[in-house]
Design brief:
The protein is of the alpha/beta class and 352 residues long. It has helices spanning 6-13, 17-25, 32-45, 74-82, 94-108, 123-130, 146-153, 177-191, 207-222, 240-251, 266-278, 312-328; strands at residues 63-67, 112-116, 136-140, 158-161, 171-175, 197-201, 233-234, 260-263, 288-290, 307-309, 336-339, 342-344. The strands form three sheets. It has a six-stranded parallel β-sheet, sandwiched between helices. Strands 7-6-8-9 form a four-stranded parallel β-sheet, with helices on both faces. Strands 10-12 form a two-stranded antiparallel ribbon.
Length: 352
Amino acid sequence: MSAPTVYDVAERSGVSIATVSRVYRTPDSVRAQTRERVLEAARELGYVPSGSARGLASRTTGVLGLCFPDYSDPDTENEAAATDEDDDHAFMLYSDQIIRGMERAARQHGYALLIAASLKGGPESLVANVAGRVDGFAVLAGTVPTADLEVISRRLPVVMLAGPRGIDHLDHIVVANADGQRALTRHLIEDHGLRRLAFVGGEANSPDAEARFAGFQEACRDAGLPVPDAPAVRATMMTQAEGLRVTDALLDRGGERPQAMLFANDQMAVGALRALERRGVRVPEDIAVTGFDGIPLSRLVRPPLTTVRQPIRQLGAQAVELLVQRLGDSGREPVSLMLPVSVIRRASCGCG
């Protein structure tokens, strides 16, 4: 059975070939109703939007892809630009580390890496930018709608990174988010005797942040502490600026101040350290602060941040390994891996 073409999509959706092309190249130039009709036709047909995709069954591109949302953190970028040290590595964030891991592993296997990290034009544009130009790609959970991944995965190997698998036949890699947060929370409770704990989460649709909150709940339950139904406060984006904002919001509520603030990632925790310093709140004497991820910046802030280190580069490298294995044997059983994490105890919780 031959792969569907742009002509098939145009015929099914009742538009010109040029309109189909514009839907994928410049989606904003096409009326929303028409755009959705074209995308629906493409999904039904299993169309991969690239001329090169028609030959994927018989030849390879030598390229692997990575799709993720570009939630850049301006505060970190400014720090990197202003630092006196020539140490870009110190300001690498979560996505940077994944890219580094994928790039190195891809090169070892003779592949180049193509990155799509723009939210402009929506998730369909991410797929259009990558799927037709690569032999296989990795995608961070929540970046591309499940329906679109279903279509693409019929013709290309796809590895899901983080979050739930979503599609049973896809390879999937996640880190032990709940285990790590549970261990960190127990450390605060058992080793430091802290009882009033406030977990700061991300949006409810962030699978990793929600898994970390579940680990926090479990540790509270095991210790006989009140178990909250939701995080004390949620950030809209998990950046330093949001960490600063939600810290102020939490403390401005009044009432008894928490003894510890546990953030769903390091970037927010770094922002919190700034907010607390500005308010004259000492860390860890007045409030302990913890993060999650183990980005290099976490060890440079003052006080150094207690966190859960996840093997971010290994996550990227393992994605390449699974893609290469799938390209060599498309019929193998899907793999779901959980990578271990470790608690890093530093001064922000009273250790070190």
